[in-house]
Amino acid sequence: MSLIVEYELRTPILKSAAQAAEKLQIEELYGSQAGTTKLLFWAFGDDFAAFEDALESDQTIENYTTLESVGDRNLYGVTLTDEAATKLTYPLAAEYNVALIDITVSDETVVSARVPSRDVLLEYRERCLEKGVGFQVRRMYHEHEAETKQYGLTEHQREALQTALDRGYFDVPRAATLSEVSDELGISDQALSARLRRGQANLLWHTIADDPT
After folding, report:
1. Burial class (CB in 10 A: 0-12, 13-18, 19+), 28
2. What is the pLDDT of residues 80-95, one digit of tens each?
3. Nearest-CA neighbor of 113 among 197, 1, 6, 213?
4. Would you give the DSSP letter of residue 94?
5. What domains appear along the chain, each with residue ranges and CATH number?
6. What is the pTM of this model?
7. Coil/strand/helix, residue 141
8. Cβ neighbours of residue 56 closer than 8 Å, sequence gap 6 or more
9. Dist. CA 60–CA 71, nearest whole Å
10. Angle between helices 189-205 and 155-166 (to 10 degrees)
């Protein structure tokens, strides 16, 4: 099961420019045919003239282009300097099959990523440190834990619903009885029935109810 990791990178990239915006949201990173490294990102704020002055003075940026303006955010494309490009951790992420989910730059550069395992995380972190990029883990959780929290389920309710679904308890006709599922979970029929009812109620309140709580 995937491990979701939120971590802070201590990198100079866009650090100076970010001080003039509410936050920066990285959209894309790619290499051009000319061999340069480019970033696409949304800048959020209310003074883009000041932010663009900050882009001009940021030592990690070679040049920039304003691509789109939507309300309180602008989309920019920037070319990084060659020196700044050496601090990118994206190539290492690809090497270790770390899937980047979200990158936000404000006072810190905070990354959310899907990591194959804790061992891979440790190796990836060590390689980032070798590049001179600070790396601090903020929190870790398994993917299903995020889903459980989102839909108001307890861990036991999630486990009961998942097992019942896998065993065909919800199929028509049913492929497994309540007793068969409860035996697999090591609980009584009554306890399983209660978990399923409460779990289904939580799912409904957090999905289709008009006024979820």
Report:
1. exposed
2. 999 999 999 999 999 9
3. 6
4. H
5. 3-141 (no CATH), 151-205 (1.10.10)
6. 0.67
7. strand
8. 64
9. 27
10. 100
